[in-house]
Design brief:
By secondary structure, the protein is an alpha+beta fold. The chain has 14 helices and twelve strands.
Length: about 425
């Protein structure tokens, strides 16, 4: 009753609009304790549940974004921004004129010629299959391969060095060591050169000294070996201008579509031009599907948490039945009274949600900056990324679910007889 008397004084003094009337009462119901202790307990618990739910929502989305970036760092070591290869043949000619024209395309920062083939590798009695990658000096400008080398160093470009970089898994399988320690790597390819079939060797081989070892959790990537481009061409019997593909590094991801369009025009219809996402189409589709499912599951959890708010508003409506009847007698209509409790529900939802969102931002910031929590069994900080899009998604869910919950709680008003 005290709230009603103060409301009358407020309305007479300020001559407030309908919006001001509902705001004033809803704010006072939210800020001041109820005479029923159960109402206070339920309101506080509703806010607390929302704090936890929204905080968890934002943290989980940030962790997922961090894992995406973490995985993308390994992808960038083996997949370029754009890759060009022939549709019809395994190798094609790439001359200086085409090279100059490629660099003139807006958005192209670097490119690297590559030669790829499946080969047999061995060291003493140990042998296996691998994917040969002949690379030139600019390769490390296009790919982030050097970032994942854990032992040794990246190869030097000149062919006379005859150096190779292998994975941990392959080095362990073939008992390889750095700089010829424990033996070097012999690469063999079937003989395809013209000549007398009976007299020619069945395999051509080259010996390489291991200069570096990289780490990767992907089985397919573990089979990659990297040697100088000239050495690969000599081993495969290719002319100096013959390559398997061109890997391209772009300067601006925002102009990626335009750059790819220009590259396609340069190479023509006989060549396939694919972005990193197209090269790993299944992987990125899986990520997008997982992100959608994660949002839906977390949104469902938020909806369940919001029912606490619905319960708090309904109990408040039951407690304030006398006040509601008095408001009707003073001239308030049903829409104004409904607006009071609708806004009270919004206050409960957004106060708890805002605190939870700020707490989630603080947790993500601390982990991103200081790496408090590490991946199990390693010293690598658990990957999280503060992404504005995640912030917007959580706020959107808060607004949708909060408004829906507040509206749902108004159904209790229909049972009050005037």
């Amino acid at each position: 009753m005290k709230i009603l008397l103060k409301t009358l004084a407020f309305l007479k003094k300020e001559n407030q609009s309908k919006v001001g009337f509902s705001n004033f009462i809803a704010r006072r119901y939210y800020l001041f304790k109820s005479k029923w202790n159960i109402v206070n307990i339920i309101s506080r618990s509703a806010s607390f549940v929302l704090v936890v739910a929204v905080c968890a929502f934002f943290v989980v989305l940030s962790v997922f974004s961090g894992l995406k970036v973490f995985g993308a760092n390994y992808s960038k070591a083996f997949d370029p921004d754009v890759k060009v290869f022939s549709k019809d043949s395994k190798h094609f000619s790439f001359d200086d004129k085409l090279s100059e024209q490629l660099l003139l395309i807006p958005g192209v920062a670097f490119f690297s010629k590559i030669v790829e083939d499946k080969v047999l590798v061995k060291n003493n009695e140990n042998s296996g299959f691998a994917y040969l990658n002949g690379v030139e000096k600019k390769y490390s400008s296009v790919f982030d391969i050097e970032k994942i080398i854990t032992v040794g160093r990246w190869i030097n470009a000149p062919a006379e060095n005859n150096e190779v970089v292998v994975s941990h898994a392959l080095a362990d399988e073939l008992s390889l060591g750095l700089y010829n320690y424990g033996g070097g790597l012999t690469v063999l390819v079937p003989s395809k050169r013209p000549g007398n079939f009976l007299l020619q060797k069945p395999f051509y081989s080259s010996f390489f000294m291991v200069s570096g070892i990289f780490g990767s959790s992907e089985t397919a990537d573990q089979k990659n070996i990297f040697v100088p481009l000239v050495s690969a061409q000599e081993l495969l019997g290719l002319e100096p201008n013959k390559i398997s593909g061109v890997a391209i590094k772009l300067t601006n991801s925002l102009e990626k579509k335009n750059s790819i369009k220009k590259i396609k025009e340069l190479f023509g219809h006989d060549f396939s031009v694919k972005s990193r996402e197209e090269l790993n189409e299944t992987y990125y589709k899986m990520l997008n599907a997982e992100e959608l499912i994660l949002n839906l599951v977390l949104g469902l959890i938020l909806i369940v948490a919001m029912f606490n708010t619905v319960g708090a508003v309904i109990i408040l409506i039951i407690e304030k039945q006398k006040d509601i009847k008095t408001l009707y007698k003073m001239g308030a209509n049903r829409a104004q009274v409904s607006d009071v409790f609708f806004k009270h529900g919004l206050y409960l939802s957004f106060s708890g949600g805002s605190v939870g969102l700020l707490l989630g931002c603080a947790i993500v910031f601390v982990q991103e900056q200081f790496g408090v929590i590490s991946l199990k069994g390693t010293s690598i900080p658990y990957p999280v990324v503060f992404d504005v899009s995640n912030f917007v998604v959580v706020v959107g869910w808060m607004a949708l679910v909060g408004a829906g919950g507040a509206f749902l709680s108004l159904l209790a008003l229909k049972k009050i007889k005037l």
